[in-house]
């Protein structure tokens, strides 16, 4: 009796299927890693561009602010220590609001501690008179360092404190230079702004007296 041999069954073995699946998984993982890396790089580039644009806008704002500082403005700089961090506050009295141009406002550029650590730089504008109000805007966040200094021409050194009288019609002598520095993500930024000289300092108004009045005295820092 003759027997007929059956041809081997066509198809993939279990081992071959496992190998193919492993190769597909490796290819998909490589594609995902490449796509994820590309998206991360794009996000980093976009964040860097936004940070650069914000820093440039802040630099332009400070340049105009210091160059156009009114003669009646009073500049005060305070630096305090809180929880191992140095917090600074630059106060400008009798200046127009940078938001809507309202006159005789108080502009403060100050740092404050963040809940999760680090610092943020804030801008505060206080309006006086009948429409008294306050506006706060965050300029930078996640800063490890941030502060202001002025150049004291008397001692020829940078100082973290400066005091001028805030009363109206009082003579003032502003510092010639002011410095802003900040560190974010290990990258340190430093900007130095020139303050327009106060050549038209307002003098205290007094009744007419016999003889020449005494010369106005500058208020020391």
Keywords:
5-stranded antiparallel β-sheet; disordered C terminus; 1 helix; 24% helix; 4-stranded antiparallel β-sheet; 221 residues; alpha+beta
Please describe what this structure looks like.
Mean pLDDT is 80; it is low at 201-221. The chain is built from 1 helix and 9 strands; from the N terminus they run H-E-E-E-E-E-E-E-E-E. It is α+β, with helices and mostly antiparallel strands and 221 residues long.
Summarize the structure.
The chain has one helix at 14-67, and strands at 74-82, 85-95, 105-113, 119-127, 133-143, 145-152, 157-159, 177-184, 187-194.
**What pattern of helices and strands is seen along the backbone?**
HEEEEEEEEE
Mean of residue pLDDT values: 80
Count of β-strands: 9
The gross shape turns out to be elongated
* Class by SSE composition: alpha+beta
N-C termini distance: 121 Å
Write the layout of secondary structure elements.
Blueprint: H1 14-67, E1 74-82, E2 85-95, E3 105-113, E4 119-127, E5 133-143, E6 145-152, E7 157-159, E8 177-184, E9 187-194
Antiparallel strand pairs: 1-2, 2-3, 3-4, 4-5, 6-7, 6-8, 8-9
